[in-house]
Amino acid sequence: MERVAVIFNPTAGRGKLQKQKVKIEEILHNQFEQVDFYETQKYGDSGDLVRKVASEVDIIIAAGGDGTVNEVVNALCRLDRRPVLGIIPGGTSNDFSRAIGMYQNPVKATYQIVDKHQQPVDVGKTDKNYFLNFWGIGLITQVASNVDSEVKDRYGRFGYYLRTAQTMGKTEPFHLQLEADDFNFDDEAVMLVVGNGTFTAGVEAFFPKGDVQDGLLDVLLIKETSVQVFWSMLQTKMSNQPTKEEGYIYFQTKKLKVTATPEQTVDCDGERRCSTPSEIEVLPDYLTMLVGEMK
Ligand SMILES: Nc1ncnc2c1ncn2[C@@H]1O[C@H](COP(=O)(O)OP(=O)(O)OP(=O)(O)O)[C@@H](O)[C@H]1O
Questions:
Q1: Residues in CB range of 112: below 8 A, 6 or more apart
Q2: How far is the CA of 247 from the centre of ligand 1 (A)?
Q3: Architecture of domain 130-284
Q4: How far apart are CA 290 and CA 243, in angstroms?
Q5: Under CATH, to which class is 3-116 assigned?
Q6: Residue to mutate, 6, 11, 152, ligand 1, most ligand atoms under 8 Å from C-beta
Q7: pTM
Q8: Is residue 41 within 6 Å of ligand 1 at its C-beta?
Q9: Where exactly does CATH 2.60.200.40 map onto the chain?
Q10: Which segments of the chain belong to CATH 3.40.50.10330?
């Protein structure tokens, strides 16, 4: 018997997910013996609910945006026995759901979930948090904190690009020290992004060679901001070897030590609750997930 708990954020996607709830319930009830829905009321509820029900279920479904998924993952990854995780995407970017091939329409994604196709996936871990998509400092945090809810509501994920363009010229470099498996760095930088998933703010631009099952983190370090650097980065086919183009460096590693001066705020899957220094590592095949069509 498969027991399912759905952690459901009724406010995700400005209430769009809520409108599909009845249909989602119907699909799940038709395919699983036991399905219980738990609606969240506020930040923190998703994690509390996971801790409460995890020992009694086989599958936990995070139905919401990246915030809900992040809370569920952080509670789940701390458990010894981790139920299988599914995502019904209901937010703006839904980054990891894209990386595992889920449809962005919540009802279509629910049909993928009841196909019960499971795969192990890697998880990123920092000192205090787990992440599925990315860990970042510098420009990426400034962009995210400049994306207010009005921009997000009006432009969705395009709001992020709008703010990137506006923020680029104003970014202050910081001193960055990196210690990776086969690579060290000690110089000025404007952004460091460490990816586990392949999507950031809904696009696959940063890590086109990323793979959520390769047991590796993808690291992109930008030394200076200019439209040319971003353009050449997006055009270049990134390989598994360290790529050093003018303005940026790309490589893969299993773990990474990061020190920044001045101390930098960390954006971990959209949450900005800690700062450098940080140690980051990949936990290969740490979660089993219900997936769609993976590349
Ligand atoms: N009932 C609720 N009312 C208000 N906020 C809630 C409620 N339930 C959960 N939250 C909080 O809302 C925040 C945002 O949720 P989530 O990321 O799932 O949706 P979203 O903002 O629409 O998506 P995205 O982050 O992709 O734009 C989360 O931090 C979550 O904890």
A1: 101, 102, 103, 290, 291, 292
A2: 36
A3: Sandwich (2.60)
A4: 33
A5: alpha beta
A6: 11
A7: 0.88
A8: yes
A9: 130-284
A10: 3-116
